[in-house]
Each structure stands twice: as structure tokens, then as C-alpha cells.
TrEMBL record:
<dbReference type="InterPro" id="IPR012296">
    <property type="entry name" value="Nuclease_put_TT1808"/>
</dbReference>
<dbReference type="InterPro" id="IPR008538">
    <property type="entry name" value="Uma2"/>
</dbReference>
<feature type="domain" description="Putative restriction endonuclease">
    <location>
        <begin position="30"/>
        <end position="183"/>
    </location>
</feature>
<protein>
    <submittedName>
        <fullName>Uma2 family endonuclease</fullName>
    </submittedName>
</protein>
<keyword id="KW-0255">Endonuclease</keyword>
<dbReference type="Pfam" id="PF05685">
    <property type="entry name" value="Uma2"/>
</dbReference>
<keyword id="KW-0540">Nuclease</keyword>
<dbReference type="InterPro" id="IPR011335">
    <property type="entry name" value="Restrct_endonuc-II-like"/>
</dbReference>
<dbReference type="GO" id="GO:0004519">
    <property type="term" value="F:endonuclease activity"/>
</dbReference>
<keyword id="KW-0378">Hydrolase</keyword>
Amino acid sequence: MTTTSLPDWVFPPPGGFTAKDLDNIPDLPAHTELIDGSLVFVSPQASFHARIIDLLAMGLRQAMPDTLRVRREMSVVLGTDQRPEPDLTVIKAEAACDDDETYYLAGDVVLIIEVVSPESRSRDRHRKPQLYAGAGIQHFWRVEKDSGRPTIYVYELDPATRAYGLTGIHHDSLKLSVPFELTIDLTEIDRL
């Protein structure tokens, strides 16, 4: 493929792309993220990835208060050149008022969940948590596949350092009291 046959959006503008650009680039592949002003394309999801998202979304919806909503694969604007797309996002209910919305603002986010894939390992373990913490998002969960089962690493924001501190590692059951009371049987992934 020659550079003349590539779409114009392949070439970033001076200074990189902005969060606003994602809604205006024609024919952009679905689920494209913006990290540090660069477009990031995601690989197709594996079965484990889809099943753990389903399991967690169901568990969250059953447990969370009426003041919150859970959304799958919706981008979050963290800054001018940052618009990642977490696997799951828990937002304030008032932020979920427009069926045409394509993103949420960091100030409306209560919890972000990333399921680590082989191609996104470095971003999901390092860069994205830095960005989420820097934007002041209080809760972050990272899900890893371990012998076919999920392991969930739960983090809470330290407001003094604006960095996440690990509060627990969960294997067969996820039982938490923050950001709300929650119990999810992680072994149920085998039934999905």
C-alpha cells in the first residue's frame, strides 16, 4: 500500500489528534482510542474478554445504586489529547442523558474497568491507569486472565498523590464495599 492510497486520517496533524477529532474522522475503525494524541486501534476481542465484560456488567447493574449507570466500550475524555475507551465504565446517572453521546467526561466517571488483552497489556497495566488517576477517577479495576479464569486487581485513588493504590486481588469472588456494596461470583464465567 502506498502513502497515496492511505486515508488522510492516518497522518496526524501537527501536535497530534485531539479528543474532538475522534467524532469527525470519516471511516475511522470502531473502538479507536486516543492516547497521547495518537490513534490506537484495537484487535478483535477474544471470548474470555467478552464473557468477563458480560459477567461484570450484569453484577454491577444488580448491585449499583440508582444514581449510577454502567456502560460498555464508551470513550472517556481525560484531556485534550486523551480519549481512551475502557471496557466498562460506571458513570453518574445524570451523565447518561443523551442517546447520541459518544463519550463521557472524566468528572462523571466513578469506576473504570479494563480487561487486559495480549496486544493491550502495556497500555492497560501502565499508561491507562496513569491517565485515569491523573484525571481524578476514584476507582479502577484491571482484569487479567489466569488459567482461564479472571483475576481482578482493585485500585483506589490516593488524592494526595493522584496515583492508584492496590486495595485487593480477587480470584473466585469479588466482594467490595466501595464504590458500593458488591458481590460477584467470578466462577460464573464458566457458565457464560
